[in-house]
Amino acid sequence: LCVDTTAGLIGWIGSRFVLWSTDVHESDVKVQWSSGLQTYGVDNICANIILFWASKCAQASMRIYHEFYWNDLNVMRNLKVPTVPVAVSNFPHEIIHVTKFVTKSTFHNLKQFTYHSRGGHFAHIDNTEAVVEDLLSFINKIN
After folding, report:
1. Residues 6 or more apart whose Cβ sits within 8 Å of residue 36
2. Which of 21-30, 57-66, 83-92 has the highest mean pLDDT?
3. Which of 45, 63, 86, 96 could form a disulfide with 107 if both were Cys (CB 3.0 to 4.6 A apart)?
4. What is the pTM of this model?
């Protein structure tokens, strides 16, 4: 397993930073890795790896991806959601995309739904401005 050794964890997390967020549509793996390292920085990637390794939570954090992959939209259909206000941000390089239609039918108090031109699974790092803008806009809408 990728969480049993530090090498496996480095390979897993390092590749996720590149594959789940890069704008590079290059088949050359070296170019993709270079882009990922430029976007996130070695220190940031290493800090994430250390957090997963030291807290021993890597396997638990992967569970949601496994469940969503194998259950597909049943997860969304069976989700019991309170009527709190909801905002959704869609980033083009996210690994899971939820349409506005599915979002509206699941979250009945949808206040904001935004499509972004860049960013991915780690949008809080590679498109921080958009995430902050969305949060501030949402807070203004519900206050």
Report:
1. 14, 17, 18, 21, 22, 45
2. 83-92
3. 86
4. 0.71
